[in-house]
């Protein structure tokens, strides 16, 4: 049963309900709101990050690259020449022609001298035979034949000696030439390797010096890049600095309490009084 005028939300016990709000002091709250507005403005504006630069190759490095490319295969002509020299040093000796340039150039004079000596000996023998009255006889024939044999032997020995000496000289010269070619092949190949090594040393030196220059240029570029970033984010750092100060400040809050208490209903109070009186009358009557 609902009694008019009686509040359903009333607490018979008379409990008070309230909501408490804790706030900063107005000055501090205003500063914090200003800080939040500033941060919100920063957040709305995008930050353009500068591109980080990479230092290019230096002139020395580019020169090293060029010389490296130009030096590729530079040793090949030396290697080809050395190979040919080495192959030539394996040639076979030709006894049929090699000796000719070492023959005694006065061989004809030697042979002519021998012939003249034997001509004199034959003339002397013929003269002796004629004086003895035996010219044209068997004895003279034998003597003439013997002189002819001796002449042939002498000429043959002279020629053989000249040929033998020429062959020895040719063989010795050929052997020396082959040895010289082998030595030359080794030397030429060594020159090619040495040239390549020296060139690589120059390239390495240029590359090393250029790398130092490039590293320094890169360090300067990186320092400029970091400085640009610091300049871009410097306002944010100041904002964070102020925010840290606000967070570290002691609390200076104030409280505002809002609440409601149930009020007494006059009708309900009258009804309650009537009920109480009725209960007393009935008790008195029953007695």
SSE topology:
Elements: E1 17-24, H1 26-44, H2 59-70, H3 76-88, H4 107-131, H5 138-248, E2 253-260, H6 266-286
Antiparallel strand pairs: 1-2
Side-by-side strand order of the widest sheet? 1-2
SSE succession: EHHHHHEH
Task: Report the total helices.
Answer: 6
End-to-end distance: 31 Å
What's the pLDDT, averaged over the residues? 75
Describe the 3D structure.
The protein has 287 residues and is mainly alpha-helical. The chain has a domain at 59-247. It is built from 6 helices and 2 strands; from the N terminus they run βαααααβα. Strands 1-2 form a two-stranded antiparallel sheet. Helix 1 runs antiparallel to helix 5 (138-248). The protein starts with 16 loop residues before the first strand and ends with a helix. Mean pLDDT is 75; it is low at 1-10 and 252-261.
Short description:
The protein is 70% helix and 6% strand.
Supply the key terms.
mainly alpha, two-stranded antiparallel ribbon, 70% helix
């Amino acid at each position: 049963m609902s009694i008019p005028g009686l509040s359903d939300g009333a607490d018979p016990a008379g409990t008070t309900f309230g909501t408490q709000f804790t706030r900063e002091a107005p000055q501090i709250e205003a500063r914090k709101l200003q800080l939040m507005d500033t941060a919100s403005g920063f957040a709305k504006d995008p930050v353009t990050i500068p591109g980080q630069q990479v230092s290019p190759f230096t002139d020395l490095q580019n020169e090293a690259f060029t010389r490296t490319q130009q030096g590729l295969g530079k040793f090949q002509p030396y290697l080809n020449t050395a190979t040919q020299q080495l192959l030539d040093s394996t040639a076979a000796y030709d006894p049929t022609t090699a000796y000719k340039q070492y023959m005694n150039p006065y061989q004809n004079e030697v042979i002519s001298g021998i012939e003249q000596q034997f001509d004199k000996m034959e003339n002397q023998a013929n003269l002796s035979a004629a004086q003895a009255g035996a010219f044209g006889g068997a004895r003279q024939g034998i003597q003439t034949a013997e002189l002819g044999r001796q002449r042939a032997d002498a000429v043959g020995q002279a020629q053989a000696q000249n040929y033998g000496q020429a062959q020895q000289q040719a063989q010795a010269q050929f052997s020396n030439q082959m040895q010289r070619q082998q030595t030359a092949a080794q030397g030429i190949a060594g020159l090619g390797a040495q040239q390549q090594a020296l060139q690589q040393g120059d390239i390495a030196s240029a590359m090393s010096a250029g790398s130092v220059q490039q590293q320094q240029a890169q360090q300067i570029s990186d320092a400029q890049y970091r400085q640009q970033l610091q300049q871009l984010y410097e306002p944010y750092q100041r904002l964070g600095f102020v925010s840290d100060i606000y967070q570290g400040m002691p609390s200076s809050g104030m409280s505002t309490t809002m609440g409601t208490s149930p009020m007494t209903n006059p009708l309900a109070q009258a009804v309650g009084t009537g009920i109480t009186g009725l209960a007393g009358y009935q008790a008195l009557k029953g007695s």
